[in-house]
Amino acid sequence: MTAALPVLILMTSLVPAIVTFFLPQESHLLRNALNLGSAVLKLALIVAMLVAVAGGAIYEAALPLAPGLVLLLRVDEIALLFVSLSATLWLLTTIYAIAYFGDKAELSRFFGFFSLCVAATTGLALSGSLISFFLFFEMLTLSTWPLVAHKQNRASLDAARSYLLFALPGSAALLWAIIWLESTTGPVLFTDPPDLGGIDPWSQRAIFALFIIGVGVKAALVPLHGWLPAAMAAPAPVSALLHAVAVVKAGAFGVIRVVYDVFGAGTVVDLGVGVPLAALASLTILWGSIRALQQDEIKKRLAFSTVSQVSYIVLGAALAGPYAMIGGLVHLVHQGLMKITLFFCAGIYDERAGIKRIDGLNGLGARMPWTSTCFSLGAMGMVGLPPLAGFVSKFYLGLGGIEAGAPWVLAVLAASTLLNAAYFLPLLYRLWFLPPAEDASGDERAPALVAPAVVTAAGSLGVGILAASAISPLGWANLIVLRGYAP
Amino acid sequence: MTGLTVFALTGAALVGLGFYGLLAARHLLRRVVAFNLIGSGLFLFFGAAGARGVGPDPVPQALIITGIVVALSATALAVGLVVVHARAAGHAVLPEEPEEPEEPKDEGAT
Amino acid sequence: MNALVAVLALPLLGALAAVALPPRAGVRAALLATALTVAATIWLLLAVARRGVQGVILGGWEPPLGIGLAADGLGAAFIAMSAAVMGGVALAARQMMAPDVVGARAAFGFWPLMLLLWAALNAVFVSRDLFNLYVGLELLSLAAVALVAIGGKEAALAAAMRYMIFALAGSLLYLAGVVLAYAAHGTLDIGLLAARDAAPSDGLALALMTAGLLAKTAIFPFHVWLPPAHAGAPAPASALLSGLVPKASFLIILRLWFEAMPDRAGFAALMLLAGLGAGAVIWGSLQAMAQARLKMIVAYSTVAQLGYLLLVFPIAGGDGAAQPWAAGAWTGAMFQVLSHALAKAAMFLSAGLYLAAVGSDRLGDLRGLARTMPMTAFAFALAAVTLMGLPPSGGFTAKYLMMTAAFAAGQWYWALVMALGGLLAAAYLYRPMAVLFARESLIAPRPVTRAAQAVPLVLAGASILLGVFSAPPFEFMQIGRPDAAEEGL
Asked: Nearest CB to C401: which of A64, A66, A146?
């Protein structure tokens, strides 16, 4: 069973993806049942595994391809953190997407690629070797393209093209880095950091830079972030998935893997590449926030906010210390919960009230109280108000900054918090305190749209309040650092 | 000068003539003839080169015969092609630049 | 009866039957011959996998007097590739080459030519004698030229004629090299040649043979004949011409440089070959980007994809052959051959389906076809993934193996060419993908059956599976390899 379980978890997304492609457009019931059923099954499998892994078990499944190419699935604590996030949010997003699309066209294609995208994320999370990581990373690139282009109008096709324009050179850089590294060290397994002794320090730095470019495109690090705001042309469920679990998280997760499992925190510090990366992450945090301030469209503002927030994770990884790592890991989950709430709500505003722009939000709090409450919770979490999720992340990142001897991180965090407040609080003010427009309409009589948002909003509140308990993301992140990366 | 050298030199001369024809002639039939010249020259040279040592070497002879058959079939196809092409195009000269074949608009038509 | 003889004799017999019988029965006979040859191929694969290299001495005459045929892992893998592509093409051609679609003459001519081509390919894959290879190569060229001309239109005939000139010139150059080799060594058997000491004329012989073969493989700068010929032929014929035919002449180059005369080539010559390959990758891709028709894009993509193959020479050839990375680079190139064949056949067959649906392959006329023919669009996309070299396709395995070896050999610049080639492939394949994916369609397409759409999908899927399950073919191709290193890196 130890080998079968990771494969099974991957298959719970991969098989429905392939089956869905062949379902006729009209068979709504079958398609929905298949997708929801697999999502529930996957969640159940993951819970079972969580219990086992907490007890110290490790699951592994290997498929050797050609010599040097080993497809390795390995479930350890850090993989489970990511995979449980993606599985939970997959289930919720599927419910949301079914309600969102109703009986629109091309749904078999949509849900097929949607599941494929989740399968890629799962595989990426479970990858135990660099080459498997790359494999699923690319699968993610390709399966996301049809999702971004789904509406098939000019804006989404342009967005999809710009996505590939960034993503494919990024992949080339990543592949270049992997091959450069592996041609000297042999296949790299995450459990067993490679011996870099055969490579001179400047080449090591170049390899590190190539790695960061490769995963940085997906993590939307400035200046490689241009595709992300454009990609909001995609339907709301796609944006939710893209911004919370799939693409940007894959990039951030990649940074964590590169820093801790490929190079090792010690080497990163010795090479002197951690601080530049942290500086780049800080720049991204500030730049994303400033750009978010300038946006009038809700989804665009949220998109730039993602650019900014994901770099907290990168910052946590770059500082290469235990506290910072805890902050980064926990933000991987926290940002996912908060941002998916915000995108769910943005989709509801658009779908039920036809509101895309910020000035349309006036007075909506009374008309759509559930949605607006969720939105407010998500936004306040992003700002970092205690006891919401964002506060916990920022607290640990701050500690990590001090610990790593980089107190300027505190300044970045403070500035970012102010900026977050500056671009989120006006929205809340409009929702709750301004009078509605005279011709305002809209309601939230769509429980399947609102319920997922309520769940994730409650989640982002819960993980903050219950942060001290062992089963919270923070508790799990502590466990990861204690078991695997304690100095 | 032995007989063999004569054969070899004649073969080489034929090859040279053939190459000249290939480059200088634009008429497709002339080019086909030029190919045959080169082929014959090579076979002659082959025969001369094979006849080393004491007795005649059977291998080149067998190969030359095979080669002649192959060259004959290639020539047949080439001449056939020249004829159809000339019928379709009205001349037996290829256009200077390879151009895109015209759009097969009606290929799928029933 | 030996499996090796069967894969040569069955397509020949089928070709004869297809000519002799009345048209309907002829097609049925051709399909039967196809099925039997596929079965014989599987038989041969099993035999090679179980018992190693399979050989036959024709007529009981030992080399150098007689001719020996042998299928090693490499040859058998190429035969399997032909069987896969031929099988798919035969299924697709039942509709695409029907008399009411392409006219009675083309419909009649296609089947015997296809089978003849198959026999010639298999003959090249198992021959171990330079002259025998020449005969196989000539047979191959004649069948291929006829397949280009089969449409009967003026432009196609001109393309066929140009192809013929290149093919004949290539054959003569090759033959001249063969003559020199015989004059120096008195044998043309590859195994015996390898055992002889180097002769002064070997360099010239090798150069002549290689130049001729490069012209036949359409390697840059001898590629000009390929795009019009491959784009002008009917789609099933294009699939064979692009996917299989250049691989035969490439295999001979490979056998010459790695088996017959491995130590004769200097490093500069190896680098020159790879330089031509790099030129092909870049020039072919740039040209593909400039094309307005789907079949021309796919044809120029062949020019580019063939270029990768030549990069193997400096990495694994010459002195590199004894290095630990040689097996990886060499097998990587073979993966490129196999996955390109499958993917390119799938692409041309997809193009043929689009042509059947809207009567044109101009990019502008293909708008929105992903909606009406999703399976075909998916097949095209999967094939594109292989050509771009993205995981988990066979094309990725090829690139990974070759790039790692290039780095290990200290020739990182060839890895750069491969990475750049992947990006360029993405650029030229993106245009058709985006057009297919557009929302509105201009032309109401004629319906195409799901069964017809399944063929390219299966071929493209196979090119992906080749990457997912790359360990068995990797092992298989090492069977009978002369100085096979223990394993790759």
From this structure: A66
Alpha carbons C438 and B10: distance in angstroms, whole number? 65
Residue C485: what residue type? A
DSSP H helices in B25-57? 28-50
User: Does a structural domain hold residue B106?
Assistant: no
Residue the block writes with tokens 């500056």 = A422
Does B68 contact chain C (CB < 8 Å)?
Answer: no
Q: What are phi and psi of A228, to 5 degrees?
A: -70, -50
**Per the CB < 8 Å rule, is C355 touching B78?**
no
The reply to whether B107 falls in a domain is no
Cis amide leading into C391 (omega within 30)? no
State which residue of chain A sits closest to C390, comparing Cα positions: A138
d(CA A13, CA A35) in angstroms, rounded, equals: 8
- The answer to whether the CB of A344 falls within 8 A of the CB of A375 is no
Question: Looking at the domain assignment, is residue B13 inside a domain?
Answer: yes
Interface of A with C in 52-71 (CB under 8 A): 64-69, 71
Which residues fall within 8 angstroms of residue C444, CB to CB, at 6 or more apart? Answer: none
Give the count of beta carbons closer than 10 Å to the beta carbon of residue A8: 17
Q: How many domains does chain B have?
A: 1
Number of alpha helices (DSSP H) and beta strands (DSSP E) in chain B: 3, 0
DSSP string covering C337-406, please? HHHHHHHHHHHHHHHHHHHHHHS--BGGGGTTHHHH-HHHHHHHHHHHHHHHT-TTSHHHHHHHHHHHHH
Give the C-alpha separation, A467 to A475, whole Å: 7
**Which chain C residues are closer than 8 Å to A146 by Cβ?**
437
Distance of CA A243 to the CA centre of its chain: 6
User: From the CA of C29, how many Å to the nearest CA of chain B?
Assistant: 25
Q: What count of residues does chain A have?
A: 487
Residues ≥6 apart with Cβ < 8 Å to A377: A341, A388, A457, A460, A461
E strands, C9-108, are 54-57, 68-71
The DSSP bridge partners found for residue A192 are A189
Binning chain A into helix, strand and coil, the percentages to the nearest 5 are 75, 5, 20
Contact B99 C357 (CB under 8 A): no
Residue B85, min C-alpha distance to chain C (Å): 6
Report the CATH number at residue B58: 1.10.287
Mutation target to probe the C interface, by most C beta carbons within 10 A, among A183, A188, A213, A217 is: A183
Quick check: A69 and C487 CB within 8 A? no
pTM (2 decimals)? Answer: 0.91
Whole-complex ipTM:
0.87
> Inter-chain contact C153–B102, Cβ cutoff 8 Å?
yes
Query: Do the domain assignments include residue B77?
Result: yes
Give the number of other CB atoms < 10 A from CB of residue A250: 25
Minimal CA separation from C82 to chain A, in Å: 22
For chain A, 487 residues long, give each residue's pLDDT as a single digit of tens.
467 888 888 888 889 998 888 888 888 888 899 999 999 999 999 888 888 887 777 788 887 777 777 888 888 888 888 999 999 999 999 999 998 888 887 888 889 999 999 999 999 999 988 989 999 999 999 899 989 988 888 888 889 999 999 999 999 999 999 999 988 888 888 888 888 888 888 999 999 999 999 999 999 998 888 888 888 888 888 888 888 888 899 999 999 999 988 998 888 888 989 899 999 999 999 999 999 999 999 999 999 999 999 999 999 999 888 888 889 999 999 999 999 999 999 999 988 888 888 888 888 888 888 999 999 999 999 988 888 888 888 999 999 999 888 889 999 999 999 999 999 999 999 988 988 877 777 787 888 889 999 999 999 888 888 877 777 888 888 888 877 765 4
Residue B73, domain extent? 3-89
- Specify whether the CB–CB gap between C489 and C325 falls below 8 A: yes
Q: Does A7 touch chain C (CB under 8 A)?
A: no
